[in-house]
Structure formats: structure tokens, C-alpha cells
Design goal:
With 277 residues, the chain is mainly alpha-helical. It has three domains: 98 residues, no CATH class; 88 residues, no CATH class; 40 residues. The protein contains 13 helices and four strands. It has a two-stranded antiparallel ribbon. It has a two-stranded antiparallel sheet with strand order 3-4. The N and C termini lie far apart (70 Å). Bound molecules: zinc ion (2 copies).
Length: 277
């Protein structure tokens, strides 16, 4: 069980579950992809295919905490074929399969370490989970309410907001909660006006981004930043913050403005130097 311990860099698991984008992890990700794609392409025309790339794919999946029997079930492959692929047949003193049927290969290669396939106790990066909860709190859902809806003790709920990693079970539970509540008004669901305002103010003070600042496709990516204004990170972002009174302006907008000013100053300096000459 990986827990909150550090995973090794240079692995597809680290890339995928911790969102690490360091060079060795990106390399491991591209290796995983290349192996899989090559094996898929190869399997389309051969009567039997080389078992090795498929075995490599299966082993990567096992690193994600997906047991081989569960993997066989997910792929719809008999456990016997699966065990021969991985371990051979020890009673008959047979080594792991050298070749397998293309259909078996295709079925196994189709399985990927998606959130649905992962074991529920696998620890993953908490970024998306934290952002979803912060956005709900920002929308006026008190922590105690959210904890109750998730069947959690308030103290455990507090941990979810601060820990760098959470289990897949928690990720799934928070996704369900978010889907259910992101559009709802807490005041129509048993939250009184006072608790609502207190909660909104609390989240605003902490700078937590609202639902509208996130995109479903990128909310889990640690490299993305919230788009508060719809123009964040562009040269119009800084003014947009002022016009929409979403202050202070976010970091990417301040950076964009600084870059824009540097650019203008540099452009302005050229004629002045030309004048002096
Ligand atoms: Zn890394
Ligand atoms: Zn911004």
C-alpha cells in the first residue's frame, strides 16, 4: 500500500497518480504509451502476437494496485490465460507465454489505469479532490455539511482538505458529491443564511476558487490554475479582475501584466536610444 509515502520518479505510476511532470516521469509515460500503441498496431494483423509487450502492459497495470485476477475480469480474459502469460504453468514446468492470441492481447491492452479501474485504497494526488471541496465551500456549503454528506467525521474531512494524497475511494466520493452539489444553492438545502455567508467569506479569504473557475477536464491537473475571469493568464486578465471586482488579481494575470509592461518599455526604449545617437 503506497499510503502517503513518496513514489519513485521515472515511473508511469508517479506520472499518473501523483501528477508528476518531471522528465523521468514524462519519459516513463511516453514509454508506457509507445509500448501499448506498438502492441496494439502489431496485434491487428498477426495470427499470434509477441506476449512481451502485453506482459509489460499488464505489469504496469499491476503497479497501480490492479490485481491480475481483477485485471483478467476487467479484460474478459480467462484467469488461466492470464496466469500463463504472467507466471507460466509451474505444474507442467512451462515458462510464461511467448506468444498469445491477438484477441487476448487486444482485450488486455484495452484496459488502462483509469479512476474506475484502480483499487479503491490506492493513494493518488489530492489536487482535484481538494479543489472540488474548496469550490463547494466557496459556494456556501459548510464543511460539516459536506462531511456529513460524505459520511465522514469532521476531523477526517479536514484531513482531506490538506493532505497531498487521498485514496481513490475518496476521489470518487468527492466527484459524486461535486456532481450533485455544484449547481445547488445550499440555502435551499438546509443551510441557514448566516452559516452560508460565514462559509462563503471563509473560503474567499483563503482565496479558494469557485466552481466557475474550473474546467472539468483540467481540474485534476496540478499544473492548471483557476480561471477566475475567463481571461486569466492573458494580457486582458488584469483589467478583467478589476472590472469584475475579483481581487487581488491572480498570479498568472499579474505575471502577464508584468510581461506586457516589460515588452512596452523595451519597445519604448529603442526610439529613445536612436534619438541619442
Ligand atoms: Zn517525477
Ligand atoms: Zn486572473
Amino acid at each position: 500500500m503506497a499510503g502517503v509515502s513518496e513514489r519513485e520518479h521515472g515511473t508511469y505510476v508517479k506520472y499518473k497518480l501523483d501528477g508528476c511532470r518531471c522528465y523521468p516521469c514524462c519519459f516513463a509515460d511516453s514509454e508506457y504509451r509507445r509500448n501499448r500503441e506498438r502492441a496494439i498496431a502489431y496485434g491487428t494483423w498477426q495470427p499470434f502476437v509477441d506476449a512481451e509487450p502485453v506482459r509489460a502492459h499488464v505489469r504496469s497495470l499491476m503497479e497501480f494496485g490492479i490485481g491480475w485476477k481483477r485485471l483478467a475480469a476487467l479484460a474478459g480474459v480467462p484467469t488461466g490465460a492470464m496466469s500463463k502469460l504472467l507466471y507460466g504453468d509451474q505444474r507442467r514446468n512451462m515458462a510464461p507465454s511467448k506468444q498469445i492470441r491477438p484477441r487476448t492481447a487486444a482485450a488486455l491492452l484495452a484496459v488502462e489505469p483509469s479512476l474506475e479501474n484502480l483499487g479503491s485504497v490506492v493513494a493518488v494526488d489530492a489536487t482535484g479532490t481538494r479543489r472540488r471541496l474548496q469550490a463547494l465551500i466557496r459556494a456556501g456549503w459548510p464543511k460539516a455539511q459536506l462531511a456529513k454528506r460524505m459520511g465522514m467525521l469532521p476531523s477526517n474531512f479536514g484531513d482531506v482538505l490538506t493532505r497531498p494524497q487521498v485514496t481513490v475511494r475518496t476521489v470518487r466520493a468527492v466527484m459524486r458529491l461535486y456532481d450533485e452539489l455544484w449547481q445547488a444553492d445550499p440555502r435551499e438545502h438546509g443551510v441557514d443564511n448566516q452559516a452560508y455567508s460565514r462559509t462563503v467569506n471563509y473560503a474567499s479569504k483563503l482565496g479558494w476558487a469557485p466552481v466557475g473557475a474550473w474546467d472539468d477536464d483540467t481540474i485534476d491537473d496540478p499544473a492548471t490554475v483557476p480561471d477566475w475571469t475567463g481571461k486569466c493568464g492573458t494580457s486582458d486578465g488584469y483589467d478583467a479582475h478589476y472590472n469584475m471586482r475579483i481581487l487581488p488579481a491572480c498570479r498568472p494575470c499579474r505575471d502577464a501584466r508584468a510581461a506586457h509592461r516589460r515588452e512596452r518599455r523595451r519597445a519604448g526604449r529603442v526610439p529613445r536610444m536612436a534619438e541619442a545617437a
